[in-house]
TrEMBL record:
CC per GO annotation: cytosol
UniProt record, GO biological process: isoleucine biosynthetic process; L-valine biosynthetic process
Listed CDD domains: ACT_AHAS
Protein's organism: Roseovarius halotolerans
Enzyme Commission no: 2.2.1.6
Catalytic reactions on record: 2 pyruvate + H(+) = (2S)-2-acetolactate + CO2
Protein name: Acetolactate synthase small subunit
PANTHER family: ACETOLACTATE SYNTHASE SMALL SUBUNIT, ACETOLACTATE SYNTHASE SMALL SUBUNIT 1, CHLOROPLASTIC
Keywords, sorted A to Z: Amino-acid biosynthesis, Branched-chain amino acid biosynthesis, Transferase
Gene coding for it: ilvH
Key word Amino-acid biosynthesis present: yes
Self-association state and partner proteins as the record states: Dimer of large and small chains.
Pathway: Amino-acid biosynthesis; L-isoleucine biosynthesis; L-isoleucine from 2-oxobutanoate: step 1/4; Amino-acid biosynthesis; L-valine biosynthesis; L-valine from pyruvate: step 1/4
Keyword Amino-acid biosynthesis included in the entry's annotation: yes
Stated role: Catalyzes the conversion of 2 pyruvate molecules into acetolactate in the first common step of the biosynthetic pathway of the branched-amino acids such as leucine, isoleucine, and valine.
Length: 190
């Protein structure tokens, strides 16, 4: 009579190992959520985050289908893989939500943000601000004798780097749109 031997602690033949394993490492994820464009939907989505103590690093929303009255909410959030899975599942249960896509998990995505930066200064600082703006491909959208307003589009990291370089040159104010993102390469099914 032969007996099946499984080593104690061996997980190779255990049914309990069918669940995905999650790490405790904090990750940043970009979520695209397609919702009905109606009053209160954004408040319900944000309420899900605040009610459970989840943080939103970036939030953008705009109507993307005028005839179907659908909006796209792009959310950048952080958490462990388990928390991200919980967020996606809970978003999917909200009634006006039609689709939830984790652009980070689904593959490469194009992410861009727009920023306006007001830099005040004169003399060499003014010249240096213009030189750096040229390197970063920032446009001057307003100019006075003592300040510039630069417009910059790029990844959040690019905008952070430009802002850090502008601080000692007189960065006075900054406005950012938040991340807009689309998946690369594949065509969305519709």
């Amino acid at each position: 009579m032969s007996a099946l031997k499984i080593k104690k602690g061996s997980s190779k033949h255990s049914a309990y190992n069918l669940r995905p394993t999650f790490s405790d490492e904090i990750e940043s994820h970009t979520l695209a959520v397609i919702v009905d464009n109606e009053p209160g939907v954004l408040a319900r989505v944000i309420g899900l985050f605040s009610g459970r103590g989840y943080n939103i690093d970036s939030l953008t929303v705009a109507e993307v289908d005028h005839t179907g009255h659908m909006s796209r909410i792009t959310i950048v959030t952080t958490g462990t893989p388990q928390v991200i899975e919980q967020i996606k599942a809970q978003l999917g249960r909200i009634v006006p939500v039609h689709e939830v896509h984790d652009l980070t998990a689904e593959g490469r995505a194009v992410e861009r943000e727009l920023a306006l930066l007001k830099v005040q200064g004169s003399g060499e600082k003014r010249v240096e601000a213009l030189r750096l703006a040229d390197i970063f491909r920032a446009s001057v959208v307003d100019s006075t004798l003592d300040s510039f307003v630069f417009e910059l589009t790029g990844t959040p990291e690019k905008i952070d780097a430009f802002a850090e370089l502008m601080r000692p040159l007189g960065l006075n104010e900054i406005a950012r749109t938040g991340v807009a993102a689309l998946p690369r390469g594949r065509i969305a099914e519709g």
